[in-house]
Amino acid sequence: MARIGVISISDGRDHVHARNARFIQSKQDALVSSLTSAGHEVIAGRDLVATNALASSVAREVAAAGVDVTIFYYAVWSFPHFTMLAADATHSPLILVASTDPTEPGLVGMLAAGGALDQIGRTHTRLWGAPDDADLAARAGAHARAASAVASLRGSTFGRFGGRPMGMNTAVANTDQWMRQFGVDVEEIDQYEVVLRAEQADTGEAAKAREWLEAHAAGVHYDGKKLTPELLERQIRSYLAIRDIIEERNLDFSGIKGQPELTEHFATMDVTEAFLNDPYDWNGPKPVHVTATEADMDGALTMQIMHKVSGDPVLFADVRHYHSDRDIWDLCNSGQHATWYAARSDDPAENLSKVHLYPEVFFFPAGGASVQHIAAPGRMTLGRLTRQAGEYRLQLMLGEFENYDDDTNDTLMRQSTPEWPHAWARLDVPAETFLSEFGANHIHAIPGDRRAELRAVAAQLGIRLHEWSRD
Fold first, then answer.
1. Is 381 helix (H, G, I), strand (E, B) or coil?
2. Among 279, 276, 225, which Cα is nearest to 252's?
3. 254 near 242, Cβ under 8 Å?
4. Which of 200, 348, 427, 440 has a CB 3.0–4.6 Å from the CB of 399, allowing a cystine?
5. Which is nearest to 304 in space by CA: 284, 283, 318, 290?
6. What is the mean pLDDT of residues 245-269?
7. Closest of 59, 255, 275 to residue 157, by C-alpha
8. Is residue 217 located within the same domain as residue 143?
């Protein structure tokens, strides 16, 4: 949830403000109560704004509280220059909210204020409705969560383990552009650090984790060659190594190149990436640390934004295949989906009961376990930040994850790589349109309809929105 500032703007005539103050306060109280009930922390201005001095001072005080977004509230006709002064003292995104009570001209006040802001080029969002309307609180909350996600990027650090994987241009972004546009620094870390730290990691914890996986997973399918207890523990020690590096270097999100050096000579990073993205491991609940395979920078940035607006782990996948007879996409990659997606349960045991650890396939001679499962069904928001001629755009759509009987799932999996995880996705965009326009081989997803938040993120970042639907 977000921290939201609320400032009510009034009429500058003393006698009019005196008449309206109780009405304004009652409407503001109802709005604050509605936002608080939705789970947000609300910082209300200490006074109603009825003078130019209050416009600046109240806005500065609310801004100093570190709000993610500021609501200017219009229950009555309000002098527009108060909004201009308050906006100048406010650096967070702005939402103008008008009461629709017809006994007072709140809409008039909002439109006058909004027009003034338009004239100086100050971006803002406009909403309206009854202050206790749950839908209004939801719409304001979506913008607030977006603002919180955008604010969280500034001053954050992305840990980039390795470099460009296998010539993949879409996995590499301009670090200067990231700092300028998103406020994100990039810490470059050689993959040898993972190998060295993994060799020094706690063998006792690695054994404990292996036993935990053997006890809770649907199957750990040792073959004596590509997957052995020793190789699985090497993967677990890689997780422990990267977890320590994250803490030491204060990394906020990460990407691991993996291919070809680690996958040819050490072990795959599938177990590492899956459990970094999970909200738990063998030690219990833990924060999600967004981690993109193949050190995909724009993928990781997309995932970090999606995680911040939803609070959920984020799916990372290749767009592997389109089953035209079913209108279903196979979203599958080299074994890295967070295990949470197997059932999307708060209980790790429920998720892991649907997860198999299979020996890696021929792509990866070093071996290790692939974290295999089929993503649980449900409504999903899918998309990615991509670049066109150097400019970012957010490509966005809704979709539905589906699941079938065992025979059908097995038949579909065997048409690609059955040892890897799969999400059967029905996208709200025609296949021809998607394949002609999508700007990467990787796609990302979170549960539910989060388009409102992601649209707001795009607007706040000044990124073009490229949204698809079948309508």
1. strand
2. 276
3. yes
4. 427
5. 290
6. 96
7. 255
8. no
pLDDT value at position 335? 67
Q: pTM of the predicted model, to two decimals?
A: 0.94
pLDDT in tens, 224-243: 999 999 999 999 999 999 99
Structural domain harbouring 287: 157-467
| 176 shares a domain with 143 | no
Same domain, 279 and 132: no
Residue 471 has a pLDDT of: 65
* Strand order across the 369-372 sheet: 219-220, 356-359, 369-372
List residues bridging with 386 in a β-sheet.
393
- The CATH number for 109's domain is 3.40.50.1070
The interaxial angle of helices 134-153 and 297-310, nearest 10 deg, is 140
Question: Which of 120, 153, 186 is where one domain is finished?
Answer: 153
Give pLDDT tens digits for 390-437: 999 999 999 999 999 999 999 999 999 999 999 999 999 999 999 999
Domain final residue pick, 153, 174, 205: 153
**391-402 and 94-98 strand pairing:** unpaired
- Single-letter amino acid code for the residue at 19: R
| The residue type at 381 | T
Whether residue 182 sits in one domain with residue 141: no
CA distances from 262 to 192, 199, 269, 328 (A): 9, 14, 8, 33
| Tens of pLDDT, residues 42-63 | 999 999 999 999 999 999 999 9
For residues 149 and 167, membership in a common domain is answered with no
- Tell how many helices (H) and how many strands (E) occur in the chain: 16, 21
